[in-house]
Design goal:
The complex is a heterodimer of chains A (116) and B (113).
Chain A (H helix, E strand, L loop, with lengths): L3 E4 L2 E4 L5 E7 L6 E7 L5 E8 L5 E2 L8 E7 L2 E6 L8 E9 L5 E4 L3 E5 L1
Parallel strand pairs in A: 2-11
Antiparallel strand pairs in A: 1-3, 3-8, 4-5, 4-9, 5-6, 7-8, 9-10, 9-11
Chain B lengths: L3 E4 L2 E5 L4 E7 L6 E7 L6 E7 L4 E4 L2 E6 L4 E6 L8 E7 L9 E2 L3 E6 L1
Parallel strand pairs in B: 2-11
Antiparallel strand pairs in B: 1-3, 3-8, 4-5, 4-9, 6-7, 7-8, 9-10, 9-11
The chains are: A mainly beta (116), B mainly beta (113).
């Protein structure tokens, strides 16, 4: 099956600093990637849709200036959490749209962000 | 927009029993229905999917059924094993464009040895 690589798997940062999370599709070109946030024992909350070569589309209530998304190539999307605060601590997961290749929507392994 | 309801939220079975998780969707345009298994601390993993032109699909101990008329689809796991314990999510979307999958709230499956 398809592989979506997400790094880092976990990160601890100080309040006020920025953290970048990378999401790479290894087997196919993903024109569309998604970024989710997941709280404990809850479902996936879509944060934004990342489109290669254009601006990301953010869901209502998600601050685009705080969660910067860049999709500069067909295999890489990045999420940068700027000026992180403890309330940003969460599990962040990306997925890539590989439906046209028969791979479905493939998820990365997730990033556990802890802001101290 | 699409709305996906998933039941039950928690399912506890004995090893060897079968487990069934049900989802309903609202948008008749949805034509692709994947199921994901998420283990603690990991990203969801696609375990099986079905398209609207098929009524049933099997992969070893896992099967998915789809009733387009009633707009519901189900995941069936037979001969459950402790390693099947995880959270399972269903999703629905209209593929073919940059449509966004809508996920159910998840089912926590616990298989007791």
């Amino acid at each position: 099956g398809a592989v979506v690589s997400q790094h880092p798997s976990w990160v601890i940062c100080k309040s006020g600093t920025s953290v970048k999370i990378e999401c790479r599709s290894l087997d196919f070109q993903a024109t569309t990637m998604f970024w989710y946030r997941q709280f404990p024992k809850q479902s996936l909350m879509l944060m934004a849709t990342s489109n290669e070569g254009s601006k990301a589309t953010y869901e209502q209530g998600v601050e685009k200036d705080k969660f910067l998304i860049n999709h500069a190539s067909l295999t890489l999307s990045t999420l940068t959490v700027t000026s992180a605060h403890p309330e940003d601590s969460s599990f962040y997961i990306c997925s890539a749209d590989g439906v046209r290749y028969g791979y479905g929507y493939t998820f990365g392994s997730g990033t556990r962000l802890t802001v101290v | 927009g699409e709305n996906v309801e998933q039941h039950p939220s928690t399912l506890s079975v004995q090893e060897g029993d079968s487990a069934v998780i049900k989802c309903t969707y609202s948008d008749s345009a949805s034509n692709y229905f994947p199921w994901y298994k998420q283990e603690l601390g990991k990203g969801p993993q696609l375990i099986i999917d079905i398209r609207s032109n098929v009524g049933e699909k099997k992969d070893q101990r896992i099967a998915v059924t789809l009733n387009k008329t009633a707009k519901h689809f189900s995941l069936h796991i037979t001969e459950t094993q402790p390693e099947d314990s995880a959270v399972y999510f269903c999703a629905a979307l209209a593929s073919g464009g940059s449509y966004i999958p809508t996920f159910g709230r998840g089912t926590s499956l616990i298989v007791h040895p």
